[in-house]
Amino acid sequence: MIYLVRYGEIGLKGKNRRFFENRLTENIKKALQGIPGCSIRQLHTRNYVEVPEERAAEALQRLQQVFGIVSLSPVTVAGPDMAAIKDAALAEFSVLARPGLRFKVNTRRANKRFPLASQQVSAEVGAHILRSIPGLKVDVHNPETVLDVEIRDEAVYIYTQRIPGPGGLPVGVSGKGLLLLSGGIDSPVAGWLAMKRGVTLEAVHFYSPPFTSERARDKVIDLCRRLAVFGGPIRLHLVRFTEVQKELQEKTPEKLSVTLMRRMMFRIAEQLSAKRSALALITGESLGQVASQTMESIAVIEQVVSIPVYRPLITYDKQEITELSRSIGTYPISIRPYEDCCTVFLPPHPAIKPRPEAVEEAEKALDIPALVRDCLEKTEELVIDPENGS
């Protein structure tokens, strides 16, 4: 089985296009690891992926999770002469044919040495199909099925299916980002969207034993495993946050605890980003969704870092985020009933418009450098692989 793999905006990258194409090809190879007998050819703004027939469905599933792929088609390959093209087209089309089916033939002739023009090829192939399969109708304006014929230098490719891919850019072309991964619904979706724009992802999770359970920690590991299906192995930084939250409880105003906690998380994440050469922090914040995600809260929290903070979900509502989480497979993991440290320590009336001067005054009670240093020293690192490459 051969799949023709198409990309979209990569083709607009001008002199840098080859860099994007090569990265996509490498990501396809990684996605197909573990399936023996696969081969990939990069030709003419296309990738041609050959896979064993018995593993074709599995290979297709993996390819549909590779960012940068816009669509795929299983193809029939023919030799560069009209008799072979007609035979292959008939074999490809006969599987779909039914009485009354409206179809058209669409030919692209990249090989300009081929003796017939594109329209001539389409006419001859269409006529051959009509003679061979009774009851069909040609409809060039509103066809139910399109038979595509691509005539290229090395072969002729014939297909009727266009299977959608995830689109976007190949992971790895846009630098590295550090995702603040809570374990809820939002942050995994934000990480997925960042990967779709070519970002290599690492993740940081803050947990507070014994207030948060091992199952909450395991949930985050499983979320990384699911995200790794789309972008390859993810390095997860597990930050023990218990001492910070105890200090906040004991020494700072309750209504500011969420703001102060997020500022501490950002400080620690910025230090980890420097260590891991990440260029930005990525969060699952959605404007107005909770107290820490008002414009005032976001501004005060972000004051403590100089690294850019990307918020892919900032204009999404909860329904949109939930639908996307279902489609990428993170939702069933995110809704497991194991709370993270943000939820466990949520005060009854958090400040929704914290004043910078009040927050800075509250922080004077904390030894911030020591707390950050202690968290970094106790951070555990795991490299999470994809879930069985599925």
Describe this structure in words.
This protein is α/β, with parallel strands linked by helices and 390 residues long. It has 2 domains: 2-164, VC0802-like (2-Layer Sandwich), CATH 3.30.2130.30; 176-384, HUPs (Rossmann fold, 3-Layer(aba) Sandwich), CATH 3.40.50.620. It contains 14 helices and 15 strands. Strands 1, 2, 3, 4, 5, 6, 7, 8 and 9 form a 9-stranded mixed β-sheet that branches. A 6-stranded mixed β-sheet has the order 14-13-10-11-12-15, with helices on both faces. Helix 3 (82-94) packs across helix 4 (118-132) and helix 5 (186-196) runs parallel beside helix 6. The protein is elongated and about 85 Å long. The two termini are 19 Å apart. The relative contact order is 0.12. The mean pLDDT is 93.
How many domain units? 2
The CATH homologous superfamily of the largest domain is termed: HUPs
Q: Could you name the CATH topology of the largest domain?
A: Rossmann fold
Strand content: 15-25%
Query: How many β-strand stretches?
Result: 15
List keywords for this structure.
390 residues, alpha/beta, VC0802-like, Rossmann fold, 2 domains, nine-stranded mixed β-sheet, six-stranded mixed β-sheet, 14 helices, 15 strands, 40% helix, elongated
